[in-house]
Design goal:
It is a single chain. The protein has about 300 residues and is an all-alpha fold. It has a domain of about 100 residues: Serine Threonine Protein Phosphatase 5, Tetratricopeptide repeat, CATH 1.25.40.10. About 85% of the residues lie in helices and about 0% in strands. The longest helix has about 55 residues. It starts with a helix and ends with a helix. About 15% of the residues are buried.
């Protein structure tokens, strides 16, 4: 909407600037039409004089023709050239004035909403980053507000423009984006952090978690591959096992899901609050596996 407003303003000002020139053109066209009428009258009257002369009605044909020419010259406005010159001069002055006014408006708009203002806002946001990081440390006692989350995102992006290889801040940007509900930004941020530190399992897990909940099957496959890479490096990684079990159950690969949950139970203490949930999930998976096997057996008999 902003660029459309500037376009309309430019058209209006340009129209005002060129109006005197257009008016001058109209006056010039009117003068040309008047001259054409005068010439037509002259030739028509000249023809009449020739006819009168042939009939012997004129005493002095040369004198009559000279008077007719003089009358034609008198019909041409004497001030026409002067008026045209004044109109052109005024048009130039008017056009120059409005052009300068338009330039002033453009500069004002630039300093108000242009890149200069944007850069100033980014600098202010970047200066707020230490305060927001301190607030993040206190989040358990006082969660970040929606406004603080958005300011945090702007501050991190401003910092990453200056330090594009700061993998920790890319990962943190993904975390804040997830909390703010910006899934695409989280995905892009985790991807960048993982690319900068390919051996960091925490980055891989965060990236894989977003990929696993994507609607794109290719994303889910990429997420599963990342989880397998994490488990290959850390066989006891509970988070990776949990995500892998969820993925296997969703694909009706109940054997893989049960195996992942069993490995998780070995790593968790008996009083861990996640144990009952895992046990219920395993019970559900066992029931689904039995139904699956019975269906397969029935299909083979048929």
């Amino acid at each position: 909407m902003l660029w459309l407003s500037f376009l309309l303003l430019t058209l209006v000002v340009a129209g005002v600037a060129f109006f005197p020139l257009l008016r001058r053109n109209q006056n010039t066209q009117s003068a040309v039409k008047q001259q054409d009428l005068n010439k037509a009258f002259y030739y028509d009257r000249l023809q009449e004089l020739q006819q009168d002369n042939e009939q012997g009605l004129l005493d002095d044909p040369q004198q009559s023709q000279s008077e007719l020419q003089q009358r034609l010259l008198n019909d041409i406005p004497q001030q026409q050239s002067a008026v045209a010159a004044d109109s052109l001069k005024n048009g130039k002055i008017w056009f120059s004035s409005v052009t300068l006014a338009l330039a002033a408006i453009a500069l004002l708009a630039y300093f108000s909403v242009g890149s200069w203002h944007s850069e100033s806002m980014l600098e202010q946001a970047h200066a707020e980053l230490p305060h927001l990081q301190q607030r993040l440390a206190e989040e358990r006692e006082q969660p970040l507000t929606t406004d603080e989350l958005h300011r945090f995102i702007i501050a991190l992006r401003a910092d990453l423009q200056k330090n594009p290889d700061a993998d920790q801040n890319w990962w943190l940007l993904g975390q804040i984006a997830m909390a703010a509900g910006n899934g695409q930004l989280a995905l892009d941020s985790y991807k960048r952090a993982t690319a900068l530190q390919a051996d960091n399992n925490e980055y891989k897990l965060s990236y894989a978690r977003v990929l696993m909940f994507s609607q794109d099957e290719n994303d889910k496959l990429r997420g599963e591959l990342l989880l397998r890479e994490v488990i290959k490096q850390d066989h006891n990684n509970v988070q990776a096992l949990s995500l892998l079990a969820f993925s296997a159950f969703e694909k009706e690969d109940y054997k893989m899901a049960l195996m992942s949950w069993e490995m998780m139970l070995r790593q968790l203490p008996p009083d861990d609050e996640r144990v009952p949930l895992i046990q219920r999930s395993m019970t559900h998976a066992i029931e689904e596996l039995k139904l699956q096997q019975e269906t397969e057996a029935t299909e083979k008999k048929e």
